[in-house]
TrEMBL record:
GO terms for cellular component: membrane. Residues 2-80 form the Cytochrome b5 heme-binding domain. This is Cytochrome b5. PANTHER family: CYTOCHROME B5, CYTOCHROME B5 TYPE B.
Length: 119
């Protein structure tokens, strides 16, 4: 089943502290955790974009048809376009993920308040 993930969800999966490695390519979300060490260009290239949009880097390098076909097996979902805000930690947040979650909860809370007050 294909899921929808916010940028906040994705940014929390950056491969640090044992977390999975997710990347975005053309609006699709891929869990490449098991592929990182096998990547022909080296794992550093994937880790550099872990938890972020790697579309430009992916396109700039160019990939074979086989690589593009193999990529499909790592797809876990799509980016949730309802939450397009960038996740930049504030001084109060201990981690980027904390800040993203705080912003996402605030956004959802404001949205539900707006819906409730509509006529």
């Amino acid at each position: 089943m294909i899921g929808k993930y916010t940028l906040c969800d994705i940014s929390g999966n950056d491969g640090k502290n044992g977390k999975p490695v997710w990347i975005i390519i053309k609006g699709d979300v891929y869990d490449v955790t098991t592929f990182v060490k096998e990547h022909p260009g080296g794992e550093d290239l994937i880790i550099e974009y872990a938890g972020r949009d790697a579309t430009k880097a992916f396109n700039d390098v160019g990939h074979s048809i086989d690589a593009i076909q193999q990529m499909k097996s790592f797809k876990i979902g799509v980016v949730d376009n309802e939450c397009q805000q960038q996740c930049v930690p504030s001084r109060e947040a201990k981690t980027q993920e904390d800040e993203c979650c705080r912003r996402e909860k605030k956004r959802k809370g404001l949205f539900s308040l707006f819906k409730k007050n509509r006529i």
